[in-house]
């Protein structure tokens, strides 16, 4: 799915000002509301936009300890263990991986003791051979996709030979480009 320069401007505005109404977004972007809605519908249909809910902080929910737990799984039981991980509320994400281990999970815990309890629960799951835990000390780059969106948009613009369009001021202190 190609993301063009207008899509990039739309996504940037949605990321930077998520509570802005469609009418206001269309005005800020200088496009018709129907055009904006059609673009957003296509981006959702193509899986570029995957959600619109609030981003929550595990730390603010009382789980300030963040750890990454690598899980080695008995051969042939990856799906079973993956399904079991979905039942552990402290697991924020889980991925099948290559390298040292079969799964990588991101775990939020109240404190170190709680983290140990979670790891012990993981070790006791049928099919789990061993775990290795790494604790996060400080977030250095927060989850973000805007730089990627902008890179894709620039690449698409360069491939089509479309001239760079000057940014439209959003009124929030940063241009939408």
Molecular structure report:
The chain contains six helices and six strands. The chain has helices at 5-16, 22-29, 33-45, 78-85, 112-123, 146-160; strands at residues 65-73, 91-96, 103-109, 128-135, 168-169, 175-176. Strand 2 and strand 3 (103-109) form a beta hairpin. Residues 164-177 have low confidence and may be disordered.
Task: Provide the spatial order of strands within the biggest beta sheet.
Answer: 2-3-1-4
Query: Total helix count?
Result: 6
The gyration radius over C-alpha positions equals 21 Å
What share of the residues does DSSP label as strand, in percent? Answer: 15-25%
Structural class: alpha+beta
Largest sheet: 4 strands, antiparallel
Shape: elongated
Pick out the low-confidence regions.
Answer: 164-177
Order of helices and strands: HHHEHEEHEHEE
**Rounded average pLDDT:** 89
- The proportion of residues forming helix, as a percent range, comes to 25-40%
Number of β-strand runs: 6
Distance between the termini: 20 Å
Kindly summarize this structure in a few lines.
The strands form two sheets. Strands 2-3-1-4 form a four-stranded antiparallel sheet. Strands 5-6 form a two-stranded antiparallel ribbon.
Helix and strand topology:
Blueprint: H1 5-16, H2 22-29, H3 33-45, E1 65-73, H4 78-85, E2 91-96, E3 103-109, H5 112-123, E4 128-135, H6 146-160, E5 168-169, E6 175-176
Antiparallel strand pairs: 1-3, 1-4, 2-3, 5-6
Helix pairs in contact: 1-6, 2-3
What are the defining features of this structure?
alpha+beta; four-stranded antiparallel sheet; two-stranded antiparallel sheet; 6 helices
């Amino acid at each position: 799915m190609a993301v063009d320069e207008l899509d990039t401007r739309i996504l940037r505005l949605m990321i930077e000002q998520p509570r802005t109404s469609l009418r206001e977004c269309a005005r800020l972007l200088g496009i018709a509301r129907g055009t904006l809605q059609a673009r957003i519908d296509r981006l959702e249909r193509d899986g570029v936009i995957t959600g619109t809910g609030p981003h929550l902080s595990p730390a603010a929910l009382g789980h300030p300890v963040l750890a990454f737990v690598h899980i080695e799984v008995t051969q042939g039981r990856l799906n079973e263990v993956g399904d079991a991980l979905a039942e552990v509320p402290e697991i924020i994400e889980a991925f099948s991986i290559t390298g040292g281990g079969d799964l990588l999970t991101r775990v939020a815990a109240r404190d170190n003791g709680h983290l140990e309890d979670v790891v012990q629960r993981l070790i006791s799951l049928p099919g789990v051979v061993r775990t290795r835990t790494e604790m996060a000390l400080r977030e250095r780059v927060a989850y973000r996709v805007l730089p990627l969106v902008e890179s894709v948009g620039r690449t698409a613009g360069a491939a089509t030979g479309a001239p760079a369009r000057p940014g439209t001021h959003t009124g929030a202190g940063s241009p939408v480009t």
